## 1
Amino acid sequence: MEAVDAVELRSQFLQVLRSRRSSDDCRIVAFSKPKFLFSRLKAAFPILIGPISALLSLSVEPAKPVAEPLYQEIPRPRFSAAMESCPRANITDLKDRLHEENLYLTTEAGEQGRLPVLILSLTEDNPGKRPAVVFLHSTNKCKEWLRPLLEAYASRGYIAVAIDSRYHGERASSLTTYRDSLVSSWKKGDTMPFIFDTAWDLVKLADYLTQREDIDPDRIAITGESLGGMHAWFGAFADTRYSVVVPIIGVQGFRWAIDNDKWQARVDSIKAVFEEARIDLGKSAIDKEVVEKLTILVWDRIAPGLASSFDSPYTIPIISPRPLLILNGAEDPRCPLAGLDTPMSRASKAYKEANCSHNLKLIAEAGIGHQMTSVMVKEASDWIDRFLKK
């Protein structure tokens, strides 16, 4: 294996993210402590740092709680036993002591550049700087769905943060908004709704979180389920300010799935865009005969490099030396366990070379498919506590 230059690969990815944005959207935000921030940003994003005078202020707007969250699935989900099982402190008046914030961050121009953020924290007399955890929802859900996790972590002293990913929640207007965005991306090639646009939002979110007075900028974890797990993976790849990383049922080998005829479940998860591509290419069916050409074309159109230079064998290892826990189901057809052999082998080498092998772990829960379980929620909680609690 050739060594992957982490700084160079991260720079290439950020260039891809910038490629479908205006020049103003690509500038880094400025805060009140420019010398301190400049050194942090230079380490994280060396290709993006220009003169301090070129930096822009971050736009933050207050928002109201969402009374009726939009879920893009029928029937609407009502309860998650896995999330409800998350460890929480024994606080009898927890609901009264929780402080809720709803706000919008402007991450770029346009309707989708308005990032809805929900934050829960515990009201304390002398809070000081606390660790934060960013939670990312799965396909067709929204930030409000994550409230059981937000409350549990807030009860234990964390600043708990959730966002609506692109074309979800407050950024959606119908039951088909996300699906339609994928098809539009294939047709027009002007957006990257599958993973990459939300990764851009996560860079901007880190800008905001690291300047808050109540958050320790060196103790910010990121985690998510399914699509949210992929967002956590790519958010951490793109931005080193996420110091602890726990993707849940999200990490996979996109190219491996094509080469080993294990592409069906992933294609089915966003089938509308693949069907549209099939029709445009004049194919009668999505089958093994045409899947390589079709899949590569779709990935390179809606998420350039996803099945090549930014696939898991290259991007998972460079999360090192930050603590990384990957949680998957051993029988997950969307994230086949065998597809993680190469990423984990390379990551193990990277963590060993950094003298921190203990910071890397993969848990594949036996007998579990594409499902987040109570066991996974507990393992994630323990991992985050291990590295963020002082």
Note: The first helix runs from residue 6 to 18.
## 2
Amino acid sequence: MGFSGLGSQHFSFLVSLAAALLGYCDSERKRDRRRRESSLQKKKKKKKRNEKRKKMRPILMKGHERPLTFLKYNRDGDLLFSCAKDHTPTVWYADNGERLGTYRGHNGAVWCCDVSRDSTRLITGSADQTVKLWDVQTGTQLFSFNFNSPARSVDFSIGDKLVVITTDPFMGNPSTIQVKRIADDSSEQSGDSVLTIKGPQGRINRAVWGPLNKTIISAGEDSIVRMWDAETGKLLKESDKESGHTKTVTSLSKSADWSHFITGSGDKSSKLWDTRTLTLLKTYVTERPVNACAISPLLDHVVIGGGQDAVNVTMTDRRAGKFEAKFFHKILQEEIGGVKGHFGPINALAFNPDGRSFSSGGEDGYVRLHHFDPDYFNIKM
């Protein structure tokens, strides 16, 4: 009897002990789960913070001693060419911003450049009154076209057999648009012009080839965009004064398929035009003078940059002195966002031909290379 009583007591003690142990284990499991969840949340937050830091973090490329003037990607999008007021065009890897080399020979600011379709030749226009042809790989100067005034703009034709060059009004010489033939063999290169068009009053800041090399489109100080016959030099069309720009056209950039182009102006706007008809399609309004603009080859976006030097900024608009690249929806004309970073006006903009990155060049002497994060491609308007 005593033995069985002791057994029942022992049994109930064991049951209580087991229940306590089970309760303890259960609470430990819950604590472990909470600790794991908390750790996981911390890791997720840290990952998000790191992702935010990674987003649009630019690569800063410092190779120029003076303000940037122009940027140009090659057709494959693996090389980026930059021009500046420091006389030395530079080539960079477009992926990581590593400097590959420089092209030495100019004695003045280099305003513009273009690269051949096969990335073997570079052409540059300079304030030293020359346009130079270079071997991209070796940096060797192949030829120098000499003028009586500064060369402002250069653009290779489709096929790279011709180049259109603009020269500034200087010492009584008017502004000109000139077409030169590019020889396959640089030893046979001639400096003669195939066509010379005496330009309008003021500087011609940009001239480019139209579709199939049949036309030349120019724009500059007098605010009017013009279309010329590339064979005869005859003026075919002019932009409408009512709907066109009201101040100097500072920049002009073509779309990937050459069906339309964008212009930027000191009148604080950029405009989109039809390449064949010179019809105004869209207008993008900003708070600051526009120095550079480009069209995305991938999405319906345009990027616009500019700004004024601090000495020229009035108190009328607190944002007038801000130096950021503004993105607009090409069709809806609405602002999408902006990318800050430069410590002075933005003078040059270019999209990589794959549309997944873009670069900007500023008065601060830096080139900033931006690779878009995934969110950029999912922007909903």
Note: Residues 1-5 have pLDDT under 50 and may be disordered.
